[in-house]
Amino acid sequence: MTTLPLAQGTQVWSREQRYTALEQVPAATLGELRALVAASPWRQGYHIQPPTGLLNDPNGFCFWRGQYHLFYQWFPLGPVHGLKYWRHTVSADLVTWQDAGIGIAPDSMYDSHGAYSGSTWPLEDELLLVYTGNHRSPDWQRMPYQLAAHWDGQRLRKDAPFLSGPPAGYTEHVRDPKIWEEGGEFFIILGAQREDETGAALILRSPDAQRWTLDGELHTRLNDFGYMWECPDYFALDGMDVVLLCPQGLPSEGEARRNIYQSGYLLGQLDKTNWHFEHGEFAELDGGFDFYAPQTTLGEHGERILVGWMGLPDMTYPTDTHGWAHCLTLPRVLSVEGGRLRQRPVPALECLRGAEVGLGGDAGERFELRLQPDAGPFVLDLRVSEDGAHFTRLSFDGEWLSFDRSQSGELPELDKPGLDAGKGGQVRRIPVSAVRELRAFSDTSSLEIFVNDGEAVLSGRIFPPPHSTGLRWSGGGTAQLWRLNTPAEMGGNT
Ligand code: FRU
């Protein structure tokens, strides 16, 4: 039987340990892991986080039978990437999420080495799940299968693959199908790598969501734009076509693209007869530190809602020694305004608001701050420690808005040597001509800052010492500050 590294300081996981199935682990070992996780001071209060182990991409986000379903990539046994499951959560309001257990287990020969990312589409009496099965041969060659599964609310039924292996001209890096329906037909956009090791997106088409044919590649101006595009998404919004993609391998560009991998969007017009996409510049979705692999769905009222992974691959995080890593972002409502995407927190989050305290009051670790600063530079320190030595600083110098977590406490770090020097670091800066409003959501170990009513968002995990609840504000303006309740306090179990 495989033993697990759990809290052993080294955190070195063998391949055998990473590919251990949950049911092979003794209950006592899982109990130890749960206890380790429960003792972590950085467990979130109102974000979706894994019960144990590692969470990555949001998957299968949809509104079905009166509820939101949101799955995520999950390695149950520790804070590393290994045998991935889909874990399932359900919500009526996008705020209080009930954990619904395992969504997809990697239990077939096609997904034997991971039920990788994918999406869902509500059919008449069942939910269709499409995802990538990751299979490895005995000599560890990767083989991707594009898979469909059907869920009737109780049982999951898996089909044979609808696409086996890479199509001609592409490597084994073909994954992350995002499905949509349009004009009585079904489409999938799929992440891929060409044989010349450049990233691309493929389009599949189907009359019935069962028989799929490859319709071609998405033609963009970005022919040599990173070595792999992960987790693409497509939707029409406010008269525009929007493509989301996560290109890997882009160098940093001044203050931009400083994270190890990027997650951004293209806005334009897509010709669906030949998949020619006339689009503008690639723009990053989040100006902070920890954001990747977002997925969108249409909400109950037809709004386009996005959730991302508040984390990145190839990084170590301070919770690793506590047996868990990562969480999802808060859901954001998207719109196209002035030729750019805007992202606003879903309105339902207001139901978390508890007591309103003044700027000088103690809001605790979990709060929402709404600030309309006077014109000009300012410095805002959030989550200041009792001794004043630790804080996360947002500052504005008239041109740049800086998000500095260098003093915030323990720090995430890049785990990959050989990247260009501009990558990493603990400060992110975005150009802003004027800061009219900041809306900050603080949870135990994260900050999400919405700037100027969703013109920009900065997300970051922070790992401050306990009782880091102070706030320092240098400028004038008006502010509102609410303590936030957790769904658990309100009866849910996020
Ligand atoms: C993105 C990603 C996907 C893949 C999944 C595996 O973070 O690498 O491309 O499907 O994670 O967990």
Automatic annotation (TrEMBL):
Q: What are the record's GO terms for cellular component? A: cytoplasm
* Entry superkingdom: Bacteria
Tell me the keywords, alphabetical order. Carbohydrate metabolism, Cytoplasm, Glycosidase, Hydrolase
| Pathways involved | Glycan biosynthesis; sucrose metabolism
Q: Which PANTHER family match?
A: BETA-FRUCTOSIDASE (PTHR43101:SF1)
Hydrolase recorded as keyword: yes
Residue limits of the Glycosyl hydrolase family 32 N-terminal domain? 47-345
Q: Which family does it belong to?
A: Belongs to the glycosyl hydrolase 32 family.
Broad enzyme group: hydrolase
Q: Return the NCBIfam families for the record.
A: scrB_fam
Question: Biological process (GO) annotations?
Answer: sucrose metabolic process
Protein known as: Sucrose-6-phosphate hydrolase
What task does this protein carry out? Enables the bacterium to metabolize sucrose as a sole carbon source.
> EC?
3.2.1.26
